[in-house]
Amino acid sequence: MNAARPRENSFATLRTTDTASLIAAAADVALLLDEQGVIRDVSVASQEFDGLGHHDWIGRTWADIVTIESRPKVEALLRNPGSESGARWRHINHADRRGSSVPVLYATVPTGQSGQVLAIGRDLRQFTAIQQRLVSAQQSMQRDYARLRQIEMRYRALFDVVSEPILIVDGATLKIAEANPAAARLFGENARRLQGRTLADCFEAAQRPALLSMLETVRSGKAAEPVSLTLAQPDGARTEAYASVFRPDTGVLFLVRLSQPHGLSSESREGSPAQGAVLEAIETAPDGLVVTDATGEILYANASFAEMAQMDSNEQLVGESLERWLGRSGVDLGVLMANLRRHEAVRLFPSVIRSRFGVETSVEISAAATADGKHSCLGFAIRDVSRRLGADSPSHPRMSRSVGQLAELVGQVPLRDIVGETTDLIERMCIESALQLTRDNRAAAAEMLGLSRQSLYVKLRRYGLGDPAAAGDAAQAPEA
């Protein structure tokens, strides 16, 4: 029986030069090795391998041109080269001249009659870069997921502990999506049982049109007055409903706050004609008028102050701290309240009002403290003085107090307090300016102010400037 001869169109009929060209075209790198693993010829298809110094590989062993951890793989490929039935591919790293590694996927096949081996390699750098981007994307997603979980935990904790009844209502169906424990106590039901109920069904039927009208007004982006409602219970309590809208990725949600009427509510407007006129004048006054509790939480704010704060309605200010809008550094409210506790009145205090969009308005504030039994309130009259400030006025609002204005405090405030507060104010302003000029370089700021770094850190902690933890760590370090 005659031996089978190769077909005319088979790979076995290719010439040697054709086979070499085929290997060079198909492989990124090809090595021809003798039986000792010494490189006898090299074929490189891309100039990207020039950094490996492949021109010097001929005459060296394959193990000498790879990294240490890849040498056992090279030895395994040389011991058991692949055959026509298939080849084993191994990931091997070459060391380039810059000290980094270049990953190449190699397979070996025996060739010739003298134990020669052909090593065919594919460049893995593009695949490695894709893998690294994938790992970076996964890590970024994990960080975002952890951050979202922390935000959700903070939101949930705040939502549960707040004393004011709050309902989250679906804008499409007007069904309650979430209710906090305070709302559950108000309705006398479990918070989970409130979920899924239609908001209008929780109140008396006669008042539902007013509630729905308020929600539609808020949905359109306009300010809406609170609505007085009665709970749909045999002994239903009276409450006021405030609504605001927020839009997540899909749909619309309403945040409905329920509270007992307080401050200048609709019930107080129904008093005597004189009282109604006074309250109407307060509401439409051109100066901002704000009433807070003893901690600075806003109980009432008129429309002028809402305009200064660039809020959609004055009802959005209720429950917020006045410190959010007052003063550039947050110290002004503390100074005002300290003087009100001692003297019950402050006149023409210069400061600024920050809007929710970061716009600052120079103002003068007069304030008074009142006590009504167990409850004490603070009243603030806030006047916009930005138009009367000339170009030569001091750039810092806290330094705009004239000598005559300081003189007016004599007899009302002890000299020790006037000097102490003014000194603290100037000291804080100088530290803030130095930090701003040095771009928060505390060592340079201390040198600019003529202070040691330890003294500067003490003052930073005193005025609450910067990161207290970083300042504390730096204060313990020896001074250079």
How would you portray this structure in words?
The structure is a single chain. By secondary structure, the chain is an alpha+beta fold. The chain folds into four domains: 15-123, 2-Layer Sandwich (Beta-Lactamase), CATH 3.30.450; 162-259, PAS domain (Beta-Lactamase); 266-398, Beta-Lactamase, CATH 3.30.450; 414-480, Orthogonal Bundle (Arc Repressor Mutant, subunit A). It has 14 helices and 15 strands. It has helices at 16-26, 71-79, 125-161, 181-187, 191-194, 208-219, 273-284, 303-308, 332-343, 403-408, 415-437, 442-449, 453-463, 468-476, and strands at residues 29-33, 39-44, 89-95, 101-111, 116-123, 166-170, 176-179, 227-230, 238-246, 253-259, 288-293, 298-301, 345-354, 360-372, 375-384. A five-stranded antiparallel beta sheet has the order 2-1-5-4-3. The chain has a five-stranded antiparallel beta sheet with strand order 7-6-10-9-8. Strands 12-11-15-14-13 form a five-stranded antiparallel beta sheet. A hairpin with a 5-residue loop joins β6 and β7. α11 packs across α12, α12 packs across α13 (453-463) and α13 (453-463) packs antiparallel against α14 (468-476). The longest helix is centred in the N-terminal third of the chain and has 37 residues, at 125-161. It is elongated, with a radius of gyration of 39 Å. 22% of the residues are buried. Residues 262-271, 390-402 and 471-480 have low confidence and may be disordered.
